[in-house]
Structures are given as structure tokens and as C-alpha cells.
Amino acid sequence: MTTLFRARNNREHGLSMIELLLIIAALGLILGALYQFLLLANRQSRSTTFKQISVDQVNLLLKSISQEVRNALLVNINSEGGDINYFDSQIEEENPQPFLLFTLFIPDPEEESENLEVRYEIVLNKNLWEDKGEKVYMLQKSIYRESSLVKSTVLIDNIYSLEVERTSQKISIEVGVVLGNRIRYFHTSVTVRNPLPA
């Protein structure tokens, strides 16, 4: 009976130090892999959310531009726009000035003047250009009242191309935007209520 008790006692003895270290190492590997998986899933989720927000912003912007163009008193298209290589050739590196795409004249909502002049321009991100030498182009909207600047806003901060075309009473706008590592194109076509200048 004593021998049986002693044998059972030996079997119920705790884990050895080596077994314990192996279990801790295995748990460490499993938890490390789980952490990496969750980190990757979180990054992808944030990237997808960012891209969707960017897509929504561009769609909203084109809708806003379409309404402005449709209701404008006058629309002047100064250029058909172009792609990034075209902007490179048009914007001077030494003294980068905005590249005017088109101008709208809209009624002044505050009735301080007869109308407001709205300019849509391609501008070079001067900070990135001066700091890193990176050419990143932005779409900017500037509002003027009697030739005085009222407000200037960057609408898209990573633009690849912008084409503006007109046919009789219709204006078509296509915007290429850099989203992640690819370019996404957005398009809108607007029928203008007021006559376009020849």
C-alpha cells in the first residue's frame, strides 16, 4: 500500500522547469502571432476607411462643383487641364504659381457686390517641394469679391490629373486622385444654365 501511494505521489508531481519554459515560449509565440495579425487587420481597416472617406470627399466635391457650374452666371475655361506631366511643364519650379483651370462668376450670397469670382487652380504643395523635393499637386478653390481674396481652400491634396472639357452648353470634369498606391478617376458632366462665352 505504501509503495502504491509513493508511485501516485511521484506522478502528480508538478511541471519541471524545462516544461514550464517550453509552455511560456509556446504561449509567447502564439500571442506574438495573434498581435501581428490584429495589427495588420487594424492597418488594413484604417487604410480602407481612409480610402472610402477620400472617395466620398471627392464625390461630394464634384457634386458641389457641378452645382456651382450649373448655377454660375458665367464660366470661363482657361485650360483643358492635364495630367501630372502637364502640370510639371506648366508650373515653374523657381516661382511656382497656381495654374488656373477655370473661373466661375456666381451671385454674391451676402449681396455685398454684384457677384463673386471663384477660381479653381492646380497648385504645387510648396512645403513638400521645399522640404523633400516631392511634387505633390493640389486642387485649390479661391473666392474673390471685387478682386479681393475672401477665402482660399485646398479641396484635394493629392491630385494626379484634372481634365476640363466643354461642348456647347455642357462642361465635363474628370479628376484623377492618388489613393494609396493607385490612381482613381472620378467624372462629372454638367449642363450650364447660362450661356458659355465663345
Automatic annotation (TrEMBL):
Keywords: Membrane, Transmembrane, Transmembrane helix. The chain crosses the membrane at residues 20-41. This is Prepilin-type N-terminal cleavage/methylation domain-containing protein. It comes from Thermatribacter velox.
